[in-house]
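[User]
Um, tokens okay?
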Amino acid sequence: MSAVRSIADHLFAPLRVQSTDIADLFGVWNHSSQLRRQRRVVLKSRTRLMAALFALLVPLWILPDLLLLDTDHWLPLAGLRVASAVVFMGLAWSRDPGCGRLEALLRVGLLLAVPTVFHLLAAPLLADLDTGGPRGVLLQVYELLPFVVVAGLAVFPLTVLETLLYALPIFFAYLFGAHAGGEFRVAENVGTLWLLLLVTGAAMVSSLSQLQYMIALVRRASADTLTGALNRAAGEETLELLFGMAVARGEPLALMFIDLDRFKSINDNWGHEAGDTVLRAMAGQVRTALRRGDVLVRWGGEEFLVVLADSDVPGARLVIERLRALGLGERPDGTPLTASIGLAERLADRVADWPELIELADRRMYMAKQGGRDRAVLPGQTIVR
């Protein structure tokens, strides 16, 4: 029994997800910028690989058509195959250094659409042929095309919604092909439909397993292991993305630079383990005060950034006041942990880029230090104590 359980644990380990990952597996709305970038690279590379493979293999099937079909049938099919190969070649050898996420998904859709359309156009051409002998085997191969296409979904790290959206046209193509030869008989096709559904489910499991693995890798690479906040590299990338989006939409973007007061004395007097405990607790307190879309970054040591998307100065001030009211935790001796905070905002400060936003927030944080610590300096040198 233990052996069976061990095998089951090994087989289904990729399917075990945390509750926080479920939304990421269903759709892209909560994906981080790092995950979006990594998935875009994988979708692009695998689309090109599959397209190159199909561009070589699809025209080769003209020879069996030529041997088993008459001219009225193999010639139009050959034309469809050549046209398909041309599209596949375009996908495989196109230069797209700036390919975005949406374009990457559209390329996957085009890769799947070519054989789907081929099936739709080929089904009426083959509907009047008899199914006996070698020709019958050839027709069965054509009938299996939707299965091949839907199985191809397993190659890509797709969400549940993306898999369903890609699979739906393939199901319609199969129903059309089954109806092309005459009246659609449910009793004869329900088993095949069920099999197609099972293949779709297996492909979805494979896609979700890849996506979950990618989520885990990106999270491990982008997270600070001590506090769970983004590390500096991931924080810079996220801030660059959010700043660009704010500029494009004409929206505000606020940045808090937080430096813990007299943190060195904690390490000196109580040791680094006590300092680590304080940092973990502090990060948890900050996350409690933030909104869902806000981003916490460990900038280095006891320095943290908080990126407040679509927040102007009054909105950011509310976050600071909420954080100060909630508290940052305690020092090892039980006294409150305090911090000096500098705030900068894209529109109010008229900054041109995100490094300038960080520099300005950093400068105001030092003003808070020099002014007595345990306070925040806002644009206009407004002080929150």
Remarks:
- The CA atoms of residues 340 and 370 lie 9 Å apart.
- The two ends are 63 Å apart (CA to CA).
- The first strand starts at residue 253 and ends at 260.
- The longest helix spans residues 186-222.
